[in-house]
């Protein structure tokens, strides 16, 4: 699972808009939208900002991204 999908769910649960989250994180809205839609990877910098804002482990988010990337690579290698 892409970590952005988890963060999208967190936004809904916390009743926070993507625009509000981007502003709170001082992060580019378009990049954040791409991450939340699973279209772009979460960067370590974004993971740290989320950790500071929501107290979700940056290491966990980066680890989920790494596992997601590895799964995609495995699928592509077997084609």
Description:
With 79 residues, the chain is mainly alpha-helical. It has one domain: lambda repressor-like DNA-binding domains (434 Repressor (Amino-terminal Domain)), CATH 1.10.260. Helices cover 73% and strands 0% of the residues. The chain has helices at residues 3-13, 18-25, 29-36, 44-54, 58-77. It is elongated, with a radius of gyration of 13 Å. It starts with a helix and ends with a helix. The model has no long low-confidence stretch (mean pLDDT 95). InterPro entries: Lambda_DNA-bd_dom_sf (IPR010982).
Classification by helices and strands: mainly alpha
How many E-type strands? 0
The CATH class, by name, is: Mainly Alpha
Can you tell me the CATH superfamily? lambda repressor-like DNA-binding domains
Largest sheet at a glance? Answer: none
Order of helices and strands: HHHHH
Overall pLDDT confidence: 95
Q: Approximately what portion of the residues adopt beta-strand conformation? A: under 5%
Poorly predicted spans: none
The CATH architecture can be named as: Orthogonal Bundle
Radius of gyration: 13 Å
Helix tally?
5
Helical coverage, percent range: over 70%
InterPro entries: Lambda_DNA-bd_dom_sf (IPR010982)
Summed up, what is this model?
The protein has 79 residues and is mainly α. Helix content is 73%, strand content 0%. InterPro entries: Lambda_DNA-bd_dom_sf.
Task: For the structure shown, list the relevant keywords.
79 residues; mainly alpha; 434 Repressor (Amino-terminal Domain); 5 helices
Question: What order do the helices and strands come in, and which of them pair?
Answer:
Blueprint: H1 3-13, H2 18-25, H3 29-36, H4 44-54, H5 58-77
Helix pairs in contact: 4-5
């Amino acid at each position: 699972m892409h970590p952005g999908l988890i963060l999208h769910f967190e936004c809904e649960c916390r009743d926070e808009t993507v625009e509000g989250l981007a502003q709170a994180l001082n992060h580019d809205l378009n990049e954040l939208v791409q991450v939340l839609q699973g279209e772009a990877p979460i960067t370590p910098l974004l993971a740290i900002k989320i950790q500071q804002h929501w107290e979700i482990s940056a290491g966990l988010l980066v680890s989920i991204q790494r596992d997601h990337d590895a799964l995609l690579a495995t699928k592509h290698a077997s084609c």
